[in-house]
Amino acid sequence: MSKDLITEHTNALSVFENIKRTKLVFGEGAALHTGQLAKDLGLSHVLLVTDVGLVNAGHAEFVRESLVKAGIEVTIFDQVIENPTSDCVEKAKQLAFDAKVDSFIGLGGGSSMDTAKGANFLLTNGGRIHDYWGVNKATKDMLPLIVIPTTAGTGSECQSFALISDSETHQKMACGDTKAIAKTAILDPCLTLSLPENVTMCTGIDAIAHAVETAVTNKRNDLSNLFSTEAFKLLLPNFSKVISDPNNLNARGSMLLGAAMAGCAIEASMLGAAHSLANPLTAHFNVIHGQAVGMMLPYVIRFNSKLAECRAIYGQLSSAVQIDTASGLGNEGENLAAYLLNLLKKVGMPVQLRDIIGGKQMIPLLAKEAASQWTAGFNPLLAGEIEMENIYLEAY
Ligand SMILES: [Fe+2]
Fold first, then answer.
1. pLDDT interval class at 14 (50, 70, 90)
2. If you measure from the C-alpha of residue 188 to the centroid of ligand 1, how many angstroms do you get, rounded to a whole number?
3. Among 123, 203, 281, 360, fewest CB within 10 Å belongs to which?
4. What is the dihedral of CA 35, 187, 79, 164, to 10 degrees?
């Protein structure tokens, strides 16, 4: 190694943890192997945590059959709700307790996977979900978890975090623990074929936002950079494809793998201000998570582009997917923001805050809440109340 190279690396001392390993089983028809994969883990009775929509779509039965064929007993909890609450997690835990299960399967979007993780906390470690708000609060081992995402979005399948809202205050609690991460994630693009267009769109944009936000956070590192870049390469070119051609299994597969990679990136470097700005929009105006994040992302990219290092990263991401951001009107960040705004408009997603919140009177309160979100602390550029208010006004 040359002396120059050594100097370069020692100047930029980088400390980061390798992420906890989850076995990823990816491919068309992968869900057919659920029973065998559960057997490999030595499971004998699982709580299958899912929602009514997936029961009606036949996915829950499909997974149940595979488990039963492998000799595994199955109890189904199908009461998962969007943005799962402490009450919802409590109910799932109670059923798991009554049925004496030895494991969990989360089948669905982030809500199902997070509910399974939340119930696992309570069943194995007791107390209420609030006790696990933060990082590594569980003291005892948790039961094995298998996750089967049916959307290409949250990346919860590769994360140790469960996002659960307080049933009364609606406060979102991020409960993270390395013991909560899934043993196996089954990524079967066939399960995403039946998604309504709006769900494909909102979850897809959310995943793209995960790739972009994780790339620049103040916790970014060499490992997260690998995941962010790979996720962006898989997600961006395939997003338009799955919207225009929903049955394109190759594109569906790339989105699903990309979302999982973006989940690994979150695990390695957290998220930033687009997520902080989105959460109050969901809490007060019921805006779907992906829609809110997608709308705020271009404005956050512009905001972060005040930092030269962020502009450089946005440029690297863009060139990884062959978007030309060097020759446009602005800097690399502004050009990436313009590209994403165009993409949102092309698929018919809102790009202006005024279309969602009406008047400006709520903006100061929204900004206050955005600044207090956990993710705000990881944004590369300080994003306090004033900055959040300015970004909302830009987006207005
Ligand atoms: Fe997200």
1. low
2. 21
3. 360
4. 130
